[in-house]
Amino acid sequence: MTVSWHPLPALLSLTLLGQRLAAQDATQPQPPDTQPGWYAQDSAWSDGKYCSGHLLRVLVLGFQPRTPDSVRAGIIARIGATLVGGRRVALGEGLYHISLPADSSATEIRGELERLPEIAFAVPIFCFE
C-alpha cells in the first residue's frame, strides 16, 4: 500500500491560520515603529561610543497579550517615563522603548515594572559592534 502526501491541504491550513492570526493581531495595541535620532549619539551609550554597551536611561518593555492601550500608557506615565519609540513585530504585542527620568535608577524601575502582571519583560537595549 502506498501512502502519498500532498502539501496543498497543509498549505491551505497554514494560510488560514496566518490570516486568522493577522486579523487577530490587527486589533492588538502596537508601539510606534520608530527610534529617536539620539540613539546614534555616542553620549547615549554606557561605554561612551555609539552601539557600545547599553543605551542609558532606556528600557524596552514587553506587555502581556491583550493589555489595553490605556493601561500601557498609565504604566509608562506612573513611572515618569516617556515613550520614545518601539518596534512592531509580525505576531505579538511589539516592543516599547521608554526613556526614564534623569534622576531615576533603571535597576529600581526595572524591578518595579517586572513585578506588574501586565509586564512580560523590561530590559535595557544592548549593542556591541
Structure in words:
- Helices cover 30% and strands 26% of the residues.
- The chain has 129 residues and is α+β, with helices and mostly antiparallel strands.
- The protein has a four-stranded antiparallel β-sheet with strand order 2-3-1-4, with helices on one face.
- The longest helix is centred in the N-terminal third of the chain and has 20 residues, at 7-26.
Please sum up the structure shown.
With about 130 residues, the chain is of the alpha+beta class. It has 3 helices and 4 strands, in the order αβαββαβ.
Distance between the termini: 58 Å
Using the CA coordinates, give the radius of gyration. Answer: 19 Å
Enumerate the strands of the largest sheet in spatial order, edge to edge or round the barrel.
2-3-1-4
CATH topology tier name: Alpha-Beta Plaits
How many structural domains are formed by the residues? Answer: 1
Helix content: 25-40%
Q: Count the helices. How many?
A: 3
Strand portion = 25-35%
CATH class: Alpha Beta
Low-confidence stretches: 1-27
How can the largest sheet be summarized? 4 strands, antiparallel
CATH H-level superfamily: Peptidase S8 propeptide/proteinase inhibitor I9
Question: What integer is the average pLDDT?
Answer: 79
